[in-house]
Amino acid sequence: MTTVAFLVDGDDAEFAIGRAVAEQLARLGVTHVALFHERDTVCIVLEGWAFDASTSAGAAAAALGGTATFRTLRPVMQTALRATTEEN
């Protein structure tokens, strides 16, 4: 699954993920959207098996942000963790 995160200055970001934006993202292969927010920053995480961030990140940012300036973060490492039992 491809993942990309966009960081946006929280004061400048005015966007909504309504039906039209959701349809644009789905056409790009996005199947999951997560939104994180703190006082100064908004983070939008897009994921999808058919989403190609290397060719579609710009189109996704345009669909999301209108005039907002996005910083794009691409994954460097992703792994699954599992707890193990210790034997004495």
Q: Key terms for this structure?
A:
single chain; globular; Alpha-Beta Plaits; 88 residues; alpha+beta
Q: What is the fold's blueprint, element by element?
A:
Elements: E1 2-9, H1 19-27, E2 32-37, E3 41-48, H2 53-65, E4 70-73
Antiparallel strand pairs: 1-3, 1-4, 2-3
Structure description:
This protein is of the alpha+beta class and 88 residues long. The protein has one domain: Alpha-Beta Plaits. Strands 2-3-1-4 form a 4-stranded antiparallel β-sheet, with helices on one face. A hairpin with a 3-residue loop joins β2 and β3. The protein is globular.
Short précis:
This protein has helices at 19-27, 53-65; strands spanning 2-9, 32-37, 41-48, 70-73. By secondary structure, it is an alpha+beta fold.
Q: From N to C, what is the helix and strand string?
A: EHEEHE
| CATH fold-type name | Alpha-Beta Plaits
For the biggest β-sheet, the strand order reads 2-3-1-4
Q: What is the domain total for the residues? A: 1
CATH domain class name = Alpha Beta
Q: Enumerate how many helices there are, as a single number.
A: 2
Radius of gyration: 16 Å
Number of beta-strand segments: 4
**Regions with little confidence, pLDDT below 50 for 5+ residues:** none
Distance, first to last CA: 38 Å
The largest sheet, given as strand count, sense and whether it forms a barrel, is: 4 strands, antiparallel
Binned strand content: 25-35%
The CATH architecture classification is: 2-Layer Sandwich
Mean model confidence by pLDDT: 86
Structural class call reads alpha+beta
Helix content: 25-40%
What shape does the CA trace take? globular
